[in-house]
């Protein structure tokens, strides 16, 4: 259908609303020159643009202070300081003096600065590149008299559908659930940062549209369906009526699912499946508890780092962890140490790499930056006195990495003891199984840790050599590939034999057919987004683990992911009421 844009379903839900197009990219600047008598006028235009940009950034910062906190709002203070930098102003004014228009002069200088900062040997300069880009866009938008698309301009209750290429840290901080009804992006996949964020916030989303920012216009009414991955333009009366009907149905289903919060996830043949929640931000803990989560299977800690102007100190981290731990009482809370790099960029010295997903990230960065790592470890050991806390190490591929991390944990504990600070010394340590190497090495890792957490997002990416964030490769990102299933089964067999707990905390566990497959492979702990908990519980209560095991055995013998999926889907459909299978 020509009026339907097809993308990738990222977060379920149907929204009818106006498009808010956000083209957050450096605009093209014409190569214009000016006459000598126009120099003073162009300098004044520049000063006005700088003043307006600072005024807007201060407004955004104030809003971020109220909604996200002082640490997160600091990113906008950094951008204000860039605009106020005397050297920057001097260089741009000097270029205007060479008879460049204000916009051309600013564009040339900013391009030079961004390249210079990106190549710098100094970490503090390299980390400013994204802020320079934001400033570059903001000032040029004013100088070129282009529409200002900032999300902060939207009125409350507008239920707008934010359409953009991707969400940067600064844009993410501006998201307001009282104004943004849904998100649509050109880039991304189900496992990309924006998709995970949308599911965590409960915002319907479609990603991987490729050209949505070119085909959609601000103000036009569209229907976004995050379940099917479609955006319908110029909807007819019949299509609008159908969307309204499905919204009512989703609301009714949601109310029915909510009643499951207090029930156990026990299969028809008596197997209990522990359902944990993934927590991206501390504020999500209350929602997860209300949804019936039996604990936290994955608390991501990158929110403390991404988009920050400064690294979080020990006390700030302690408070963030403590809030989630207290919300869950005696239930387990598994906290993953900083998994930064790849598509999650931190503050504090990040090298530019040709392939960051295979580069200096996660545990590699933490081990190479022991003071940063030990600050986090001290906060975790202190917070562990408040409940059942477990520490999870990301992207482990060797036993040596585990031993080095444990040595740093011991150092962090000794430092707390020297300070007389209460903390736990017996916190269980686990590792993420995210690479074929970790799965194959599971037997050796089992001797060093208390639990495994299988991170399917990265395990699929590294096993199939498919970038999880590349929309053009989305059809090749197939979690039910026989190779992936075999690696998961291998890990579960080792864990069972060695008495090590094993869970799956990737997005794979949130989808009915994949949850069915994981249970068939022997996984008995699943960690999913809070909004997916009830539906996964419904699937568990409607199935038999013995049937899932038979189906997945056949799927692992398949030659292709498509064949494996067909086997599993047929078995699941025969086993469970089809009305339960809506993702």
Please tell me about this protein's structure.
There is one protein chain. With 583 residues, this protein is of the alpha/beta class. Helix 3 (86-97) packs across helix 4, helix 11 (284-290) runs parallel beside helix 12 and helix 20 crosses helix 22 (545-556). The chain has an eight-stranded mixed sheet. It has three domains: 4-24 and 149-254, Glucose Oxidase, domain 1 (3-Layer(bba) Sandwich), CATH 3.50.30; 36-143, PtsI, HPr-binding domain (Enzyme I, Chain A, domain 2), CATH 1.10.274; 265-456 and 500-546, Alpha-Beta Barrel (TIM Barrel). The protein starts with a strand and ends in an 8-residue tail after the last helix. 48% of the residues lie in helices and 13% in strands.
Note the main attributes of this structure.
3 domains; Enzyme I, Chain A, domain 2; 8-stranded parallel beta sheet; Glucose Oxidase, domain 1; 8-stranded mixed beta sheet; TIM Barrel; alpha/beta
Distance between the termini: 23 Å
The CATH H-level superfamily of the largest domain is Phosphoenolpyruvate-binding domains
Compute the number of strand runs: 16
Biggest sheet, open or closed, and with what strands and sense? Answer: 8 strands, mixed
What is the CATH T-level topology of the largest domain? TIM Barrel
What value does the average pLDDT take?
88
Tell me roughly what share of residues is in helical segments. 40-55%
Low-confidence regions: 345-349
What percentage of the residues does DSSP assign to strands (E)? 5-15%
What's the helix count? 23
Give the radius of gyration: 25 Å
């Amino acid at each position: 259908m020509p009026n339907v844009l097809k993308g990738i379903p990222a977060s379920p839900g149907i929204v009818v609303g106006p498009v808010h197009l956000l083209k957050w990219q450096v605009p093209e600047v014409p190569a214009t020159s000016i006459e000598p008598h126009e120099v003073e006028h162009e300098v004044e235009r520049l000063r006005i643009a700088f003043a307006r940009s600072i005024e807007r950034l201060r407004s955004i910062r104030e809003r971020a202070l109220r909604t996200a906190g002082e640490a997160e709002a600091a990113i906008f203070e950094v951008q204000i300081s860039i605009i106020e930098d005397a050297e920057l102003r001097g260089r741009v004014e000097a270029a205007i003096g060479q008879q460049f228009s204000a916009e051309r002069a600013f564009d040339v200088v900013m391009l030079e600065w961004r390249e210079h900062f990106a190549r710098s040997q100094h970490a503090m300069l390299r980390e400013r590149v994204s802020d320079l880009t934001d400033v570059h866009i903001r000032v040029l938008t004013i100088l070129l008299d282009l529409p200002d698309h900032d999300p902060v301009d939207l009125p409350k209750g507008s239920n707008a559908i934010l359409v953009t290429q991707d969400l940067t840290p600064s844009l993410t901080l501006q998201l307001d659930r009282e104004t943004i009804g849904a998100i649509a992006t050109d880039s991304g996949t189900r496992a990309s940062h924006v998709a995970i964020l949308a599911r965590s916030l409960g915002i319907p989303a479609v990603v991987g549209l490729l050209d949505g920012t070119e085909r959609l216009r601000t103000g036009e009414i569209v229907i976004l369906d995050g379940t099917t991955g479609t955006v319908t333009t110029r909807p007819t009366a019949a299509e609008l009526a159908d969307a309204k009907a499905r919204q009512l149905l989703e609301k009714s289903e949601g109310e029915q699912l909510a009643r499951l919060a207090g029930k156990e996830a026990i299969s028809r043949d008596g197997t209990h499946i522990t359902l944990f929640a993934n927590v991206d931000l501390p504020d999500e803990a209350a929602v997860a508890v209300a949804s019936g989560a039996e604990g936290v299977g994955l608390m991501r800690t990158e929110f403390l780092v991404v988009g920050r102007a400064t690294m979080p100190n020990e006390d700030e981290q302690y408070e963030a962890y403590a809030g989630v731990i207290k919300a869950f009482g005696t239930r387990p809370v598994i906290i993953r140490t900083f998994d930064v790099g790849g598509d999650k960029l931190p503050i504090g010295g990040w090298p530019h790499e040709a392939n960051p997903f295979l580069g200096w990230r996660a545990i590699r960065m933490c081990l190479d930056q022991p003071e940063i790592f030990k600050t986090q470890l001290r906060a975790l050991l202190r917070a562990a006195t408040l409940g059942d806390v477990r520490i999870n190490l990301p992207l482990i591929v060797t036993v040596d990495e585990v031993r080095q991390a444990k040595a740093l944990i011991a150092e962090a504990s000794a430092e707390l003891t020297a300070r007389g600070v209460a903390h736990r010394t017996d916190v269980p340590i686990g590792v993420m199984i995210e690479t074929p190497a970790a799965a194959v090495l599971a037997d050796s890792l089992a001797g060093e840790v208390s639990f495994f957490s299988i991170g399917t997002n990265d395990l699929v990416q590294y096993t199939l050599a498919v970038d999880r964030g590349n929309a053009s490769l989305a059809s090749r990102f197939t979690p039910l590939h026989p190779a992936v299933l075999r690696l998961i089964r291998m890990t579960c067999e080792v864990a069972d034999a060695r008495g090590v707990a094993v869970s799956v905390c990737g997005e794979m566990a949130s989808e009915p057919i994949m949850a069915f497959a994981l249970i068939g492979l022997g996984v008995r702990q699943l960690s999913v987004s809070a909004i997916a908990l009830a539906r996964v519980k419904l699937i568990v209560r409607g199935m038999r683990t013995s049937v899932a095991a038979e189906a997945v055995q056949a799927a692992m013998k398949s030659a292709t992911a498509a064949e494996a999926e067909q086997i599993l889907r047929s078995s699941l459909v025969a086993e469970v009421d089809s009305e339960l299978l809506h993702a």
